[in-house]
Write a structure and sequence with these properties.
heterodimer, A: 118 residues, 6-stranded mixed beta sheet, 0% helix, B: 114 residues, mainly beta
């Protein structure tokens, strides 16, 4: 069965610190996608990134960067120079294909609550 | 651009009362639609998904049901709410028949059952 583990339940940092959120996944599929979502206090999940299993290049988007390593089944998320607005719960997710009906299912980790203090 | 709406935003209901939560998507056709529940704390649980009108798949047996009367409308219902139904309900959509596409979430409905 597919599984996503976010071992860090809560992280607290001071503004301008760098912080890395860990994500470890399990899957038997050779083709799969990994995702990160942000859930601010308002509650809506905001899509951040999608990465497919064939692309292990790291990605950077502004202060955000992602490190995908198939060898360790990890897809870690780093925020550089954190800001108070980064405070949120962050979810890592793994796609699980439903071959019947053509839909996909996302398997979510339990999330990491990040608090950035001024 | 696509937008997804949910209502109501918050709801307080007594145990045993019925429930109807609505989700609509604009700006896309034939989306896949999903209902999730997030219980107190964190963790998203997929409840239902739909690949088309009238096509509903249930992930978790419970006293909730879902319907899709129109292409871009997804409704979550219950005949009799339980205390354990309290939580944050999120609707999401993804592009139809496109493998491994990201899901986009609505603003959610916070349900409290007393």
């Amino acid at each position: 069965a597919q599984k996503v583990t976010q071992a860090q339940t809560e992280i607290s940092v001071v503004e301008k610190e760098d912080v890395t959120l860990d994500c470890v996944y399990e899957t038997r599929d050779t083709t799969y996608y990994l995702f990160w979502y942000k859930q601010p206090p308002s509650g809506e999940l905001v899509f951040l990134i999608r990465r497919n299993s064939f692309d292990e290049q790291n990605e950077i988007s502004g202060r955000y960067s992602w490190n995908f390593q198939k060898s360790t089944s990890s897809f870690n998320f780093t925020i550089t120079a954190s800001q108070v607005v980064d405070s949120a719960v962050y979810f890592c997710a793994l796609s699980e294909a439903f071959y019947q009906g053509g839909s996909e299912k996302l398997v979510f980790g339990k999330g990491t609550k990040l608090t950035v203090n001024p | 651009s696509q937008t997804i709406h949910q209502w109501p935003a918050t709801l307080v209901q007594p145990v045993g009362s019925p429930l109807s939560l609505e989700c609509t998507v604009e700006g896309t056709s034939n989306p896949n639609l999903y209902w999730y529940r997030q219980a107190a704390g964190r963790g998203l649980q997929l409840l239902f998904y739909s690949v088309g009108i009238g096509q509903i798949s249930s992930e978790v047996p419970q006293n909730l049901s879902a319907s899709r009367p129109q292409d871009r409308q997804f409704i979550l219902s219950s005949k009799k709410l339980l205390l354990s139904d309290s939580g944050f309900y999120l609707c999401a959509w993804s592009v139809d028949l496109a493998s491994y596409n990201e899901q986009f979430f609505g603003p959610g409905t916070r349900l409290t059952v007393l």
